[in-house]
Specification:
Layout (H helix, E strand, L loop, with lengths): L1 H10 L12 E10 L4 E10 L4 E12 L6 E3 L7 E3 L4 E17 L8 E17 L1 E7 L6 E7 L11 E4 L10 E19 L2 E18 L8 E16 L1
Antiparallel strand pairs: 1-2, 1-13, 2-3, 3-6, 4-5, 6-7, 7-11, 8-9, 8-10, 11-12, 12-13
């Protein structure tokens, strides 16, 4: 009985007693959002106290318009594209925030709950869409493809659109829009060690721009985006 009691105590040693005072944290993660796609994020944190941590965060996410619908082009080897899409949009968010512990992980296999928020700038990258468009020869028996920037007034005949051009076509014409963003959520962390652990985070995002972003032709341009996100992060403390 004595041996059993000692083993049970050894298996439940508090990781917080004793523990090191970690000064910095680095997190790398992948995310999904309610805009239809996801992104990558990095967070560098430094401790203000045992339960509060400030951080710098940068994140790149792909944003889809809710009216985007993929369809196959008209060719023997069809390439999918989104009819009516003017620009492919990415949000590059950077900001400062805090992570505040709600419950700590007292044991090695326990869960910790945190409140997380970030506020900062948002740079929207609008990469113009280029399509491979078929033009017949004068004889009418054959034709050729031309990569053209999508123009809603010109490209109305879907039977001549073979699909998207190469992704890098037109990348030098990418335009930028500066705005702001805020995000807040809850994260659950777990792991065998305090300095090497995983986090699952979920919450809300708000992105605001001074003017609307041209995403889809013949539709209103939005300048306010409210969404949900979930991310999986791998974290390291030192």
């Amino acid at each position: 009985m004595v041996v059993s009691a000692k083993l049970t105590h050894a298996q439940n040693v508090l990781v917080t007693e004793p523990q090191l005072m970690y000064l910095k944290t680095q997190q790398f993660g992948i995310s999904l959002n309610s805009f239809g796609l996801g992104g990558l994020n990095y967070r560098h944190g430094w401790h203000k106290s045992g339960k509060a941590q400030s951080h710098f965060e940068t994140e790149l996410v792909r944003v889809k318009h809710p009216k985007e619908v993929r369809r196959a082009g008209f060719s023997d080897n069809p390439v999918k594209y989104t009819f009516g899409r003017q620009n492919m949009v990415f949000f590059w968010r950077t900001g400062l925030g805090q992570t505040k512990a709600i419950t700590e992980r007292p044991y090695k296999n326990a869960l910790g709950l945190n409140f997380v928020y970030t506020i900062g700038a948002n740079l929207a990258l609008l990469k113009p869409i280029y399509l491979d468009v078929y033009y017949p020869n004068e004889t009418g028996f054959s034709g050729f493809l031309v990569s053209e920037r999508y123009d809603p007034e010109k490209h109305k005949d879907i039977f001549r659109i073979y699909g998207n051009s190469n992704f890098f076509t037109g990348i030098g014409e990418t335009s930028l829009r500066l705005g702001g963003h805020a995000k807040a959520g809850l994260s659950v962390e777990w792991g065998h060690f305090n300095d090497d652990y995983k986090m699952l985070e979920a919450g809300l995002t708000l992105d605001v721009f001074g003017s609307g972003l041209p995403m889809m032709a013949n539709l209103p341009e939005k300048n306010i985006f409210v969404g949900l996100y979930i991310s999986m992060n791998w974290a390291f403390r030192k």
